[in-house]
Amino acid sequence: MTSQATRVLVLNSGSSSVKYQLLDMRDGTRLAVGLVERIGENTSRLVHTPAGEGARERTERIADHEQALKAVAAELALDGTGIDSPDLAAIGHRVVHGGAAFSAPTVIDDAVLAEIERLVPVAPLHNPANITGIRTARALRPDLPQVAVFDTAFHTTMPEHAARYAIDVETADAHRIRRYGFHGTSHAYVSRRTAELLGRPPEELNLIVLHLGNGASASAVAGGRCVDTSMGLTPLEGLVMGTRSGDIDPAVVFHLERVAGMDTDEIDELLNKKSGLMGLCGDNDMREIRRRVDEGDERARLAFGIYIHRLKKYIGAYYAVLGRVDAVVFTAGVGENAAPVREAAMAGLDGLGLVVDAELNAVRSGEPRLVSPEHARVAVAVVPTDEEMEIARQTFALVDA
Ligand code: AMP
């Protein structure tokens, strides 16, 4: 790496999409953001937005991830920030599942790639796409450090009593069945930013972080380390999400097989894609659900009620796990934007020191902020997440060392 190399390209490769950002780590400037979607279809779409300029957009067939990355490289080259530039220090890859082995960002070599591949059985939807992105990027710039930043890494500090399911130990170990947790990059970033907002060192703080997006997860963070989180072996466990059920009695699965005659793939689809808010009321966008609630729609009201009830159960559980809480923090699409969700989740929790100030809660802002009254016993905060920035930061810290 040359001394002037301060840029990091962040790649988030999905099964039919690649999201990317180019950041300059001297000051965290975003030089470009973009997205290729519908890879493999005739109407693939690339949207590339250089800093301070309008988006460039084109729709054409992009056959595979290799073509997609080449198209991204061409767009970056047009801006004079191509991936063959000596300014590029590394490529940081979002990798969903790092299993129990990867507790930190890792420079990717053949052995690391093989280990990520070994984890495909526990992340069949995500890791294959991440691997394709890594292989393609390595082929384009074999000389450049490529770093994997794992969604699970932040949660590897969970104690065994939080990470293990109460099932037969031999069976669990043989199939690597345990609670891994996800959204870790977001929980890590938000925890750190909350400490900055409160003006206190992370080591002193106990936090409950609520990442409420289309996927949703809660975590209990003690002294900067995750001690429990709501997602498990897969992102299906825990909170009610846009289309995922979150916690259910596992016997529901047997019942669907035996009584409803559904097969494994159908149940998988039901619980991951047709449940949660969508399954309950036919909408998974909180804006639409709130609009319907305000119009007196009964199904939307029930869906909202179930969502909030589950959220409260996790807040209470993590309060008990932590013993003392300094802040409850809301982040991601719903957490950052939906004041009614924050208000409803905190309602009736004043006995725990949790109170929301209606005026502060109504403020719309992209900045980290407190929504609790000034002298509240426990802070309630809104801290916008930035997973790309965190991936870039962790990547750069590793290669700049
Ligand atoms: P994310 O997965 O973090 O991108 O969050 C996406 C979700 O955020 C959407 O499905 C919406 O439900 C929610 N969302 C975004 N903006 C708002 C808003 N202004 N009010 C309520 N919910 C919102």
Descriptive notes:
This protein is α/β, with parallel strands linked by helices. It folds into 2 domains: 7-150, Nucleotidyltransferase, domain 5 (2-Layer Sandwich), CATH 3.30.420.40; 200-387, ATPase, nucleotide binding domain (Nucleotidyltransferase, domain 5, 2-Layer Sandwich). It is 38% helix and 19% strand. The protein contains 15 helices and 14 strands. The strands form 2 sheets. An 8-stranded mixed β-sheet has the order 5-4-3-2-1-6-8-7, with helices on both faces. The structure holds adenosine monophosphate. Residues 213-214, 242, 284-287, 332-334, 337-338 line the site of adenosine monophosphate.
Using brief descriptors, characterize the structure shown.
alpha/beta; globular; Nucleotidyltransferase, domain 5; 15 helices; 2 domains; 401 residues; binds adenosine monophosphate
Low-pLDDT sequence parts: none
Q: Strand order, main sheet: write it out.
A: 5-4-3-2-1-6-8-7
* General form: globular
Q: Which structural class fits the helix and strand makeup? A: alpha/beta
Which CATH top level class of the largest domain fits? Alpha Beta
Order of helices and strands: EEEEEHEEHHEHHHEEEHHHHHEHHHEEH
- What percent of residues are in strands? 15-25%
